Every structure is written in C-alpha cells, then in structure tokens.
Amino acid sequence: MLSGLSEWFWQERLWFPEGLGWSDLQDKDGRVYAKAADLWVTLPVALGFLIGRQVFERKVAIPLATALGVKERMRVKATHNPILESYFCTTTKYPTQKAVESLSRETSVSERQIHRWFRRRRNQERPSQLKKFREASWRFTFYLLAFIAGLAVLIDKPWFYNLEEVWRGFPVLTLLPSQYWYYMIELGFYISLLFSVASDVKRKDFKEQIIHHVATILLISFSWCVNYIRAGTLIMLVHDASDYLLESAKMFNYAGWKKTCNYIFILFAVVFIITRLVIFPFWIIHCTWIYPVTIYPPFFGYYFFNGLLFLLQFLHIFWAILILRMAVKFLPGNDIVEDERSDREETDESEEQDEEDEEEEEERAAKMKNGAVPNGCGPLNNNHHRKLE
Fold it and tell me: Which ranges carry the Homeobox domain (predicted)?
C-alpha cells in the first residue's frame, strides 16, 4: 500500500509539465540539481535551531533585555485551592456569575474572592514581558541575518532584476551552493517554528500562523523538488524584508522605548505594504502565474504552487488589516503601539488597577486593625484626610 501511495505521489505528471520528468534533474556533465532527498537535511537543521534558540535566549536575549530595561510586573499568585484549580483547568477560566455563586457555596469563599482568584490565576498564565522579548529577539536575529544572506545570494543574479530569467532554461537549472544552504536554513527555521509554536506566546492569529508555517514549508519543499528554486529564493527574500522590523519594534515596545518602537513600526508598515501587497502579488505571483504558461502548458504542480502563493497573499491581506488597526494608535493622544496579534488577556488595564486598589485596601485595613495608621493620625482623622484628597 505504501509503495503504491509513494508511486502515485511521485508520478511525473503531478510534478512536471508534459515531456519533462525526474530524469531531467539527474546530475550529469558536472551539473548538480536539487533532489527531494536533500530535504532530510532540514530536520537536523531544525533541531539545531531549537537548541540554538535556547542558548541564544539565555546567553544573549536575557542580558540584552536587562540592558534595554525590560521590566517585569510583579503578579500576585492565586492562593492554592483544589476546587477552584480543578474548575479552572477542566471547565473554564471565565466562570459565569451562576458558577461563581455555586463555587462560593462549595468553598465557603466570598464571590468577590472567587472573582479575584480567577483573575489572579489567569494572570499567572499570561506571558511575561521577558518571555515575549526573548522570542522577539530570536526571530529578529534570524530574519535580519536571513534577509542579509538572501540579498547576498541574489544580488548578482540576473533573475533578481529580470523576472523572465526565473524560467529561462527550466527545469534544467543548475543548483548553486549558496541556493542550497539558503533553502536548507530557511526551511529548517520554519520547521523549528512549527515545533515550538505550542510553547510560544499564543496570539490572536494563532491559527493563521499555523496555516502560514505549513504553507511556507510546503511551498519551499515543493519549489525545491521541481526546481522552482529561483522563484523560491525571491519569495523568501520578499518575506524576510519586513519581518525583522516588526520583531525589533516589539523588542523596543517590551523595553518601554515607545517612540523608538513607533518609528520602527512606521518603517515596518511601509515595507510590509510595499513587499507583501505590491511586489509579492504584482511581481512575484505575476512571474509564477503568467510566465510559465508561455513555456509549457499548465499542470497540477503549477496550480498547486500558485495556490499556495495565493493562500499566502490572503494572509498578507489579513495581517495588513491588523497593521492598519495598529496605525490608528499613532493618532494624537495615542503613544503606544501594541501587536494586534498579541495574547491580550481579558484582564485589561482597568482590571489590573482594580487589583492594585484591592491590594492597597487590604493593606490599609490590616494596618488599621493593628493600630498602625499612616501619618500618625487616628483612624477617623486619617479617613477624613483621604476624603479631602
């Protein structure tokens, strides 16, 4: 069964135009071509990225966060309560008022304390600023280096300036060592992202991120197997052109450098719009959709490859809408740029302020109970003083 499935999967009519096949990509006369078996190299590369990320975050990201002044807000932990913990983990993190009343009777705890417990327990699961900074700094480092490497790989190639050169001589296009490593490293990195996505900060577009990673892995792998490598390198370069700017804006945002964050975000928005909504659809997709049919008739692989590109373009439009929503925050009176994809916890600033007010009220009550009142005044005088304030 497996052999039959493998034979069907690798049949030439799915991967190549009529008259072309795997025999055309056999190494000969000193010329080397891409092979599907080469993709196994990406697995140890992905493992290397996962290990390297742990080292990077500990040895580079944490000291960098300290140098930039990334601060952590101390969060009050929820007291241990087996009944509430079980309800939190197995039922819901957001109990209804009816559920709160039931839990209050079951635990002999007031409803207000139940609400506070769930708020504190949810806050415990919120990712810290340091965790988000570490992730952003790792992705920033890779995307920046990948963009520089991509430019170095493509800057002297004729298809970088004339897209018709992408298909000249297809599919007999010799594989260059620089293209080999560019592909293996990019694909290995996206595989590592797919493995680590479960432990990373979950954002509003979590599902879209999964779709993007899977589509990117399929796109890079397929373009490698059928020797669409010239088009593939251009696609990877276009995507890396703006990603490092977004990650650097996040880093400065987490560090509290709001103005720097805003300026970088403006630059990111401009580059994103140009590369993802102009260059990608009107140059890259035009190159892969229009030019090939002038050389050979359409086939399954042609539609599959372009279908993945259109899927990525839909995601670009989705993210462009989020970027425009963030751009509203640049209006007068708005000086904070947040990632619209971030894991915005239901505990907003007003709720956090309520938490602080409750803690202060508890501390004052404890001090008054013990006879220790601020300013050396009696309870009556002190309360009167606060009313005047």
Answer: 67-128
What pLDDT was estimated at residue 385?
38
What is the block-wise mean pLDDT of the chain (389 residues), using blocks of 10 residues? 68 76 75 85 94 93 89 74 83 84 84 85 78 92 95 93 87 86 94 83 75 88 89 93 93 90 90 94 93 85 90 91 78 51 42 50 51 44 39
Label each residue of the chain as H, E or C.
CHHHHHHHHCCHHHHCCCCCCHHHHCCECCECCCCHHHHHHHHHHHHHHHHHHHHHHHHHHHHHHHHHCCCCCCCCCCCCCHHHHHHHHHCCCCCCHHHHHHHHHHHCCCHHHHHHHHHHHHHHHCCCHHHHHHHHHHHHHHHHHHHHHHHHHHCCCHHHCCHHHHCCCCCCCCCCHHHHHHHHHHHHHHHHHHHHCCCCCCCCCHHHHHHHHHHHHHHHHHHHHCCCHHHHHHHHHHHHHHHHHHHHHHHHHHCCCHHHHHHHHHHHHHHHHHHHHHHHHHHHHHHHHCCHHHCCCCCHHHHHHHHHHHHHHHHHHHHHHHHHHHHHHHCCCCCCCCCCCCCCCCCCHHHHHHHHHHHHHHHHHHHHHCCCCHHHCCHHHHHHHHHHC
Residues in the chain: 389
Cα separation, 32 vs 71, whole angstroms: 52
pTM to 2 decimal places? 0.76
**pLDDT score at 116:** 86
Q: What is the pLDDT of residue 251?
A: 93
Neighbours of 370 (CB within 10 A): 8
- How far is the C-alpha of 75 from the C-alpha of 126, rounded, in Å? 10
Candidates 182, 195, 68, 43; CA nearest to 129 is: 68
The structural domains of the chain, with segments of one domain joined by +, span 32-67+128-330, 82-125
Residue pair 129/71 in contact by the 8 Å Cβ criterion: yes
